[in-house]
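User: quick one - fold this with KG4 bound?
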Amino acid sequence: MENKNVILGIETSCDETSVSVVVDGHAVLSNVISSQMEIHQAFGGVVPEVASRRHVERITLIIEQALLEANVTKNQLTAIAVTQGPGLVGALLVGVAAAKALAYALRIPLIPVHHIAGHIYANHLVSPLQFPLIALIVSGGHTELIYMKDHMNFERLGRTRDDAVGEAFDKVARLMNLPYPGGPHIDRLAAQGSPAYSLPRAWLEKGSLDFSFSGLKSAVMQFMKQNERYVEKDLAASFQTAVLDVLVEKTFRAITQKEVSNLVVAGGVAANSGLRSRLHNRAKQEKITLTIPSLELCTDNAAMIASAAYFLYQEGNPVDLELNAVPNLPLI
Ligand code: KG4
Ligand code: ZN
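Assistant: Sure. Structure tokens for the protein plus KG4:
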């Protein structure tokens, strides 16, 4: 481990308590993820207070487990990385407090990481990021198109103006009485159906790379009111196709606009089989190098945080122990 940067990352921004040990920003020695999904399922969504309490209960144990699995002692660590935001404030605070305590006890640097930067760097764990690139982040909390010309250099090209794409999947699934989180259920049904029903696509003003999904959700609600009998799988396919048409088209418009040949994707919705296959086909057609991490690295995890932290660490800018969680932390 000598001359290596061994970073322990902590991620607690939402409903996953995760701790990971990553060497030099790419070699994952451990990535322990403790999901609270089953706890929140009963409520049909993440309950912030419940999430924070569960993080408190789990964090120490998960830190120990991550070190054990990595076969690394605390004294071998170079730095501690933590998600500073955006996320649920009470949940973020648990990770930030744990990270500060470790950094202070070990007298090593503390590196705050932006959650979306983390999602992008999940791709660096698959293969080294090649610049310039476009990153499409699609999760329950975010829908963003980011341009990067170098490490840690972000330009936002587009974002959702209302619901995040995963949130739209979950809300429509709820209308259709599917269990939470609904994304995977819509995906499964859509694969069996055909996009027979006509639903709107929100392209917004000419040239805009922003997204809007709340109108589509309302259109589905309207459709269900007006049509008591409909084919569930066809409605799922119609909704999913309407989402993907806009997502995929705007992603490739961003690629053309910025003249890049690398596309990276992350966030829970990157698990969507329709999205994956459409991105793969279009990337092949347009000779774009596409990276989509494995499901475990697409959803919230601490390895992506430790990877991004490696590049922040190279830049210096140490922070002190005054570090606080910032629930609406801007990327740029
Ligand atoms: O990144 P993630 O695990 O959590 C955050 O929001 O940060 O993303 C979760 C979101 C949920 O909205 C879930 O419904 C959606 O990802 N999702 C999917 C699929 N798998 C998960 N959406 C569509 N198709 C899927 N296969
Ligand atoms: Zn996330």
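One thing worth noting: Strands lie at 6-11, 16-23, 27-35, 79-85, 110-114, 133-138, 143-150, 153-159, 262-266, 289-291.
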